[in-house]
């Protein structure tokens, strides 16, 4: 069983990635901001008590703005 850690798990991409990895048999852990405390609807149906074995980390917690991304691509 592979363990993954997703920052920004309550966002759209984090929720989709969580569901994808769970379907592949991964154990998924997620981090969320305190301001997301009441906005967990996208992942509430995915929660289970995890067990740690192998590790993968996905960092999706970056702040972003589409317009700024196009002006300063990196």
UniProtKB/TrEMBL annotation:
What Pfam families would the database entry show?
GDP_Man_Dehyd
Pathway membership, UniProt: Nucleotide-sugar biosynthesis; GDP-L-fucose biosynthesis via de novo pathway; GDP-L-fucose from GDP-alpha-D-mannose: step 1/2
What class does this enzyme belong to in the EC scheme? lyase
Domain NAD(P)-binding span(s) in chain numbering: 5-54
Q: Which cofactors are reported in the record for this sequence?
A: NADP(+)
Output the InterPro entries linked to this UniProt entry.
GDP_Man_deHydtase (IPR006368), NAD(P)-bd_dom (IPR016040), NAD(P)-bd_dom_sf (IPR036291)
Q: Name one GO biological process term.
A: 'de novo' GDP-L-fucose biosynthetic process
Which GO terms fall under molecular function for this chain's record?
Answer: GDP-mannose 4,6-dehydratase activity
The EC code for this enzyme is 4.2.1.47
Q: Which UniProt keywords apply?
A: Lyase
> Does the keyword section mention Lyase?
yes
Q: What family is this protein classified in?
A: Belongs to the NAD(P)-dependent epimerase/dehydratase family. GDP-mannose 4,6-dehydratase subfamily.
Record's protein name: GDP-mannose 4,6-dehydratase
Lineage, broadest ranks: Eukaryota, Metazoa, Chordata, Craniata, Vertebrata
């Amino acid at each position: 069983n592979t363990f993954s850690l997703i920052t920004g798990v309550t966002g759209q991409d984090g929720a989709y990635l969580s569901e994808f990895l769970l379907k592949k048999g991964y154990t998924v852990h997620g981090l969320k901001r305190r301001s997301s405390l009441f906005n967990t609807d996208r992942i509430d149906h995915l929660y289970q008590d995890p067990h740690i074995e192998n590790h993968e980390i996905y960092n999706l917690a970056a702040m972003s703005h589409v317009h700024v991304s196009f002006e300063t691509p990196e």
